[in-house]
Amino acid sequence: MSPPKAPKNKAAAVIGGGPAGLIAAETLARAGVAVTVYDQMPSPGRKFLMAGRGGLNLTHSEPLPDFLKRYGDADERLLDAVTAFPPAALRAWADELGADTFVGSSGRVFPKAMKTSPLLRTWLLRLRNLGVTVKLRHRWEGWDDDGQLVFKSGGEDIAVKPDVVVLATGGASWPKLGSDARWVDVLRGEKVAVAPLQASNCGFTAAWSDVLRGFAGQPLKRIAISFGESSARGEAMITQTGIEGGAIYALSSPIRDAINKDGVATIVFDLLPDVTLAKLGERLSAPRGKQSLTNFLRKNTHLAAVALSLLHEAALAKGKPLSALPPAAIAALIKAVPVKLTGVQPIETAISSAGGIRFAELDEHFMLRNSRGVFVAGEMLDWDAPTGGYLLQASFATGVAAAQGALTWLKNART
Known about the structure:
By secondary structure, the chain is α+β, with helices and mostly antiparallel strands. About 35% of the residues lie in helices and about 20% in strands. It has 15 helices and 20 strands.
């Protein structure tokens, strides 16, 4: 990254110590701006660290035109930001930090160390070397009557008035890690339009039987799930109250929207997506002999007990026990198990949140139209994306875009 140089003796406040805020701070500091990052938590990057607990999926390797489609009907400014700071740029940035990246079998991009902590430690050291100050346990309260930023820290109110501000406090998922969305009331009080925050990449509730609840914590592996015209392959996990997992998260936005509209949504599981209906019908037409249906299905389909239980439950929901169905009907059910979802799991448990500051409130440089010198990045903005590297990519890209917008504003505002 080679941002333009800023006018001398300019200061910036970046509110939020996650990826969007830290990359904005780095971009500004490289241009010569004196940057202070404020975060309400005891340490920066807490949600970033949590995201890498099972392997830090930074971005994805698919071609950029396909990559951009993952953001659905997102505003063009978000797509422009990702185009300007694409996956290749994010990988190059990570490589410069010594977190050499590689492409996994699914096309997802990870640092070789897999975890967030080595990258974050090196990144914070770089920021210190660039002169960035990080002030922790500083909770942003808004602005005072003189237009100063107000923070509460240690029971005291602290007021500062930098030349530019980048807001990057996150959405509403995982609030214990800092993204508690307190900013929504602050900005609505400033007449900024904010789309309601909703759970995304989330689980859903379902009215399981006691038997199926007994499989809570067990995965449905190598399945395909479809909802409407959308489909996803991967895994799902039965929980006490419903279902979650990668394949579910990939479809969470349309499922959530349908539940919000109709109160329920029915998704369809293909428990054996790599086996054709015809081939499966042949297997199940073989003589069963004295075997129980469960043992026969286990041997001929290799389905796990949790999948077989889901199959039994679906048959009963249709009005007949599975044992009363002919082989062709069982095969058809295996390939299309309907599951009714009755609700969305709380936003606090979601991986990310959708909704946020509407793009109509921003100019082309990510600045709030009615707040001169205030720029916005990350999950505070109204966009949505699936897991797979798309969330972090957009957070980084909008952080860069907001910082570059701030640099442009500083340059043009110079008198």
